[in-house]
Automatic annotation (TrEMBL):
<dbReference type="InterPro" id="IPR029319">
    <property type="entry name" value="DNA_ligase_OB"/>
</dbReference>
<dbReference type="GO" id="GO:0006281">
    <property type="term" value="P:DNA repair"/>
</dbReference>
<dbReference type="InterPro" id="IPR050326">
    <property type="entry name" value="NAD_dep_DNA_ligaseB"/>
</dbReference>
<keyword id="KW-0234">DNA repair</keyword>
<dbReference type="InterPro" id="IPR012310">
    <property type="entry name" value="DNA_ligase_ATP-dep_cent"/>
</dbReference>
<dbReference type="Pfam" id="PF01068">
    <property type="entry name" value="DNA_ligase_A_M"/>
</dbReference>
<dbReference type="GO" id="GO:0006310">
    <property type="term" value="P:DNA recombination"/>
</dbReference>
<dbReference type="Pfam" id="PF14743">
    <property type="entry name" value="DNA_ligase_OB_2"/>
</dbReference>
<dbReference type="GO" id="GO:0006260">
    <property type="term" value="P:DNA replication"/>
</dbReference>
<keyword id="KW-0227">DNA damage</keyword>
<dbReference type="InterPro" id="IPR012340">
    <property type="entry name" value="NA-bd_OB-fold"/>
</dbReference>
<dbReference type="InterPro" id="IPR016059">
    <property type="entry name" value="DNA_ligase_ATP-dep_CS"/>
</dbReference>
<keyword id="KW-0235">DNA replication</keyword>
<feature type="domain" description="ATP-dependent DNA ligase family profile">
    <location>
        <begin position="158"/>
        <end position="257"/>
    </location>
</feature>
<dbReference type="GO" id="GO:0005524">
    <property type="term" value="F:ATP binding"/>
</dbReference>
<keyword id="KW-0436">Ligase</keyword>
<dbReference type="GO" id="GO:0003910">
    <property type="term" value="F:DNA ligase (ATP) activity"/>
</dbReference>
Length: 311
């Protein structure tokens, strides 16, 4: 009996404290003359507690194209510069395993079959794509810019040519303009392959992806998926700002960076005037492009592309 009284007293105490905290919170907000929508931002509160996927999706990653391969065994598609999007059958995830907060209308037509693709807002619009995908606040209007470029059946063990037939059927059934099948083509020699690369680059595209027609979906970086670009790209961390000279006097001239292997080198091109006036801080990870390696193993003609944002 004594224990029951203590439990009852404690319950009343916590209820009283909770009520006082709630009243104080509402009073403080009302004193700022906020609207009801601002008083209770339900969507934002819910999104802050959206659980992160514990294990990142086990996606296929591309190796760099090599001239030694048999091109006839690969199908070729355009490489889209967007954000990788994995549809699990229930939710959209980034390659890192973070939940993508897409509008209901964007995902409600997607099948129970897991898909692999690229969320893409158009040519030269990676920053726009990234900002939309990273936002926890669902914005219908901005998502109207996004297309889901579907190119594979996630973790399906069947040969790619079979997966692509199923994928074609699924996208046809979905029948939504923002869900698009990535077109595959076949080239029998390097001459025609590089002609296709030139066509894609001329259209502001990034490059080509080659998928082995007989390979199952394989996690990790392997030869079942290859990438071919005019330039390669990589990541490095800014360790020093180098002052500019001449027309860049008083602003950024270049950055000294260090890559994952510890190599250090300068990047002085690719920055806009605004970026030179307010450069990315030291410690920032950036993406740069380059044209092969020098004899000493450093990137040849490195060019700054953008700040690397994890999604």
């Amino acid at each position: 009996m004594h224990k029951q009284r203590i439990d009852l007293a404690l319950s009343k105490f916590f209820i009283s404290v909770s009520f006082v905290v709630f009243v104080t919170y509402v009073s403080a907000l009302e004193s700022q003359q906020l609207t009801p929508q601002q008083l209770i931002p339900q969507q934002e509160i819910l999104e802050q507690f959206t659980p992160r996927q514990q294990t990142p999706p086990q996606v296929t990653l591309a190796k760099v194209y090599s001239a030694e391969i048999d091109i006839s065994q690969y199908w070729v598609s355009e490489k889209y510069d967007g954000v990788r999007g994995i549809w699990t059958g229930q939710e959209l995830l980034t390659r890192s395993g973070n939940v993508i907060h897409a509008p209901t209308w964007f995902t409600e037509k997607l099948p129970s079959t897991p898909l692999d693709g690229e969320l893409w807002a158009g040519y030269q619009k990676f920053d726009l794509t990234s900002s939309i995908i990273r936002s926890k606040q669902v914005n219908d209007q901005t998502w109207r810019n996004i297309q889901y470029k579907v190119f594979d059946l996630y973790q399906d063990p069947r040969p790619f040519h079979q997966r692509y037939m199923v994928l074609t059927h699924l996208v046809t059934q979905i029948n939504q303009p923002y869900i698009q099948l990535v077109e595959q083509n076949q080239f029998l020699d390097e001459r025609t392959l590089y002609q296709e690369l030139d066509r894609v680059i001329a259209n502001q595209g990034e490059g080509l992806m080659l998928r082995h027609v007989e390979s199952g979906y394989q996690a990790g970086r392997n030869a079942s998926l290859l990438k071919l670009k005019k330039y390669q790209d990589a990541e490095a961390t800014i360790i020093e700002h180098i002052a500019g000279k001449g027309r860049y006097k008083g602003i950024l001239g270049a950055v000294l960076v260090q890559d994952s292997s510890g190599r250090q080198f300068k990047i002085g091109t690719g920055f806009s005037l605004a970026q030179r006036q307010a450069p990315p801080p030291i410690g920032t990870k950036i993406t740069y492009k380059y044209l092969g390696l020098t004899k000493t193993g450093l990137p040849r003609f490195p060019v700054y592309l953008r700040v690397r944002k994890s999604v």
